[in-house]
Each structure stands twice: as C-alpha cells, then as structure tokens.
Design brief:
Largest sheet: 5 strands, parallel
Shape: globular
CATH class of the largest domain: Alpha Beta
Number of domains: 4
Strand order of the largest sheet: 5-6-7-4-8
Radius of gyration: 27 Å
Strand content: 5-15%
CATH topology of the largest domain: Rossmann fold
Number of helices: 21
CATH superfamily of the largest domain: P-loop containing nucleotide triphosphate hydrolases
C-alpha cells in the first residue's frame, strides 16, 4: 500500500474527519474519544488502513464504526476501499499529558439540537460541554455543608426535620427542608444529560428560569435512581440563585402525610396549611405515596389549588405517570396531566459511558478504557448503580493498592454485572448457534446472500441480539454491516412471524434456550 505519500494520507484523513464530524450523531466527547488519535496509514486503489493507539479502540472501530468510516472515506476519494484497523501504540499520548486533562464536570444539551430529534429508532449519546470550576473554588470542599449560603433579602426560617422541634418554635417554619445552600451535588451543572433524560432536563431548566409562569405543575416520573430528585434540587438551586427571596419547600410525600397527621393531633392545622400554602415553590418527591390516602389527598388537593391560583411553582416526582396511579383521585390526576409530564428512563450505553467517566475522574482513579466500556455494557439499571460500582472500586483500590483492571473488576463487583461475557462475544455466540440451527455458516449471516434460509437466520440473529443484549439498533447494524433501519425492519419481520406462527415461535424459543445454556 504505497499509492499515496504520507502528506497526502494526512490530507485525505483530515478531509475524512471533516466529513465524519458533519455526519456523526454523537457527542463531541464521543467523537474525540473514538477518532481523535486515529490516523490513515495506507491507501491504494483497492484498500485502506487506519491505525489507533490500543486494542480496545481497534475492536470498537472495527465492530461499530467501520461502515461509517468507509462511507466517509468514500466521499473524499470517490471509491469504497476495503478498510482495516491496526494498532499503533505510538499514537497514545504521554501519561503526563493525559493527567493534565481537566475532568468532565458537566453535560448540557440544547433541547432543539437535531442530535436529540424524536426518533425511537436511534439511541443517541449526550452532547458534552466542559465547564470550569468557579474561580477560587476548592474541589476538596465541594460537598462541605459549611460553605456559606447566599444571603437573602428576606431570610426564611429553616425548619428542623424533627416534628418535635417544630412544637417548641413559635416562629412560622417550613415543614420540609428549605435549601438555601447551593450544594454541588444537586445542580444543573453536574447533571449528566443524555437521550434518556434530555427532555426532562430541558423542562427543568425552563421551570427554574420561569418560576410559576410557563410550566406548572412539572411532573417528572421514572424508575428510582435516575435523577428525578437531582433535577428537583437543581431547579430550586437555580431559582434561588436568581431570587434569594424565594420561599422554597421540599418534602417527601410520606413526610407530608406524617406532618399533616401530627398537625391534626396537635390542633395545628392552620399552621400546617400556612407553611405549605405560602410557598413560592413546592417540591414533593414520590407523590405516588399519597395515592389511596383519602385525607392526605384532600389536604394536598387544596394546597395544590391554592398555590396554582397564586401562580406559585409546583414540582412533583413519581415512579409512574399519573394515569397509572389508579388509587389517585381523578381531580388530582387531571391537575397533574394539565401540566407538563416528563419521564426519565434508564441510561443508554453512551450515557452510561459518560457517567462512568465523570465519576471516575472525580475519584482520581486511572481506569483503562476497556474496563469503562465493559462496565457501561453491563451496568444497565440506573445511575445509583453506576455510582455504587465506582465507589466500591475506588475503596478497593485505596485499601489494596491493586490496579483497576478487568480481573480486579470481576473479582470486586460481580454482584453488579449482568454477565461477565462482553456483548461482542454474546453476539458471536448467537450468530454461531443460529447458523448451526439453520444449517448455514456465520459468514453467510453476515454476508449479502438473500437465500430464504440465510435471510431467516440473519433476521432471527438480529432479533436475538436485540432481545438478549443491551445493543442498540445502530450497534446491531454495526455487527451485521447494515444500517439501523434495515435492522429494525428485519426484527419487525421476526416479531410479526412470532405472533402468527406457533411453530416458528417454538423454534426461536428453543434456539434462545440453547444459547443461554451455552453461556
């Protein structure tokens, strides 16, 4: 491969990178991660060779991005070469340079960014923006509760969470936590945004900047551990930064109920209502807990109406949307649905990668990229799980001094991992087992042959990869050398046949059992 000189190769590759940047649907950080150190090392009339710095990246580029790179290169040189990826360790930056890179502190998205268009077929990664710490900030004291709070023009009285303390205090107090200190753990600046939560994030920013005006109430729902409470505090923190005079009340729904019962028992109903109904912003976490509690629902209903009529901001979270809260009074449900409902779903692979990198950078650990990728592939439940694994690895590293590698991860956090088998190996095993069942070769499934038995095997393989792994449609397309729309269509054919053909359903079920037994 000596068709082009080194200078020409450099120019061709730069033009190819420009094309890739224009068409890449991921984040700036993701693009830099996978393509930043890649070089075009050889090119002739039939083939091309690119190099990257390590085996892990070689695998990712080969399995996920090869068609994307080839198509981009074709736009530059006018023909599609046979493309291979090699490893060149000299491309890796010096360790000292890597250590000087500032940690990723924040991820923000524009709600109108085309990378976040409403497309159910694509799992798109987050747009990442680096933001420096404020001048003079001491990172070692980020979570220090002793930092001074901003001084409001009309200071609010902070209430202790112990109801007994309330009885001893004559001044009116808020029954929940009043957050006047800006805790870095609960701000927009460190809320990591991806496809699964970007709409909720955008709505929360709008509420914080327009308290009680544009979106009221804001109802955020989704499974536990995905950041609903973080968004609530982020809204309060930004709103109080803009106007320190705001009276902000945060309370969990169960605590709201307990305080109401205490008020009834002590004859302090009026004080209880005053505390809630004079708030400028009321945040109630886990509102699903009031469902079925008649007296609590009645009190909440009147509190809601009083605040809403005064254009005060109401923010609620739940683990389910209002329509699924079957024990909730219809008059309350209708008020929730009259506001804005936004959901937060479990993070996709790209977001899990970003969260892990952010948490690891804050822990001052050196973790190989292949380990981060492995964790992102296997930790799929929620953000708390990701944080828990990073903390456990950091503690193990601190106590033992062992380097954080694949062996250490498998030994330290096996209980968190769905499987110790990488997704790529699972995909290869699925293809091999399906090929064996249909009497074809794995290469036939990955090839272009359209014979009926090969096409059926190919479609079933795609369906099983989608069902049995965390791979997204675009990722499956990379494995099978096809675009995501073809993958979606082929999987749809299998799903249709499963619904109409009992024999085919039994066959696919048996193949799946065999694959699981083999794993």
């Amino acid at each position: 491969m000596d068709f082009y000189s080194e200078a020409e190769l450099s120019g061709i590759w730069q033009a190819t990178v420009d094309v890739m940047q224009q068409n890449y649907e991921g984040s700036h950080q993701s693009f830099a991660l996978w393509f930043g150190l890649v070089r075009l090392t050889a090119l002739d009339a039939n083939s091309a060779e690119i190099a990257c710095e390590n085996k892990m990246k070689q695998t990712v580029l080969t399995e996920r991005y090869l068609p994307f790179i080839r198509n981009s290169l074709e736009e530059v040189i006018g023909y599609p070469p046979d493309l291979t990826v090699k490893v060149d360790p000299t491309l890796a930056p010096p360790l000292a340079a890597a250590e000087k890179e500032p940690p990723i502190r924040t991820m923000l998205v524009d709600a109108d960014d085309p990378a976040y268009a409403d497309d159910d077929e694509l799992t798109r990664p987050p747009l990442i923006v680096k933001r420096p710490r404020p001048a003079g900030a001491d990172p070692s004291r980020e979570n220090d509760a002793s930092r001074p709070a901003p001084v409001p023009e009309k200071p609010e009285t902070v209430t202790a969470s112990n109801p007994a303390d309330e009885e001893e205090t004559a001044a009116p107090q808020n029954p929940g936590d009043v957050r006047l200190t800006l805790n870095d753990d609960y701000t927009f600046e460190n809320f990591i945004v991806g496809r699964s939560n970007h709409f909720a994030h955008a709505a929360a920013v709008q509420v914080a900047d327009n308290v009680g005006m544009k979106i009221n109430p804001l109802f955020i729902w989704g499974p536990s551990g995905l950041g609903k409470t973080h968004l609530m505090y982020a809204i309060a923190n930004r709103a109080m930064t803009r106007d320190p005079r705001l009276k902000v009340v945060y309370v969990k729904a169960e605590e709201f109920m307990n305080q109401m019962i205490k008020a009834i028992q002590t004859g302090k109903n009026h004080e209880f209502r005053q505390k809630y109904r004079t708030a400028d912003m009321l945040l109630i976490d886990d509102i699903q807990f009031i469902a079925g509690k008649d007296s609590t629902q009645t009190e909440f209903f009147h509190t809601f109406d009083a605040l809403y009529e005064d254009k005060k901001q109401i923010i609620l979270t739940s683990d389910r949307p209002p329509k699924e809260l079957t024990s909730l009074e219809e008059r309350i449900r209708s008020r929730f649905e009259a506001g804005l409902l936004v959901d937060i779903q479990p993070p996709d692979y790209e977001l899990r990668m970003a969260i892990l990198r952010d948490k690891i950078s804050q822990s001052d650990m050196e973790v190989p990229l292949e380990v981060i990728d492995f964790l992102a592939q296997n930790l799929q439940e929620n953000i708390r799980q990701l944080e828990g694994v990073v903390k456990k690895l950091a503690m193990k590293h601190l106590l033992s001094g062992d380097p954080i590698n694949m062996e250490m991860v498998l030994r330290t956090v096996p209980e968190y991992l769905h499987s110790t088998e990488p997704v790529t190996e699972t995909v290869n095993r699925i293809i091999a087992d399906v090929a064996s069942h249909y009497g074809v070769k794995p290469d036939d499934i990955l090839g272009k042959d359209r014979k009926k038995n090969i096409q059926t095997a190919r479609n079933v393989s795609m369906y099983l990869v989608r069902t049995m792994t965390s791979a997204s449609l675009p990722q499956i397309g990379m494995y099978f050398n096809r675009d995501h729309s073809t993958v979606h269509s082929n999987i749809g054919k299998v799903e249709g046949e499963l619904a109409s053909d009992a024999v085919f359903e039994a066959t696919v079920g048996e193949i799946m059992k065999e694959i699981k037994r083999g794993g």
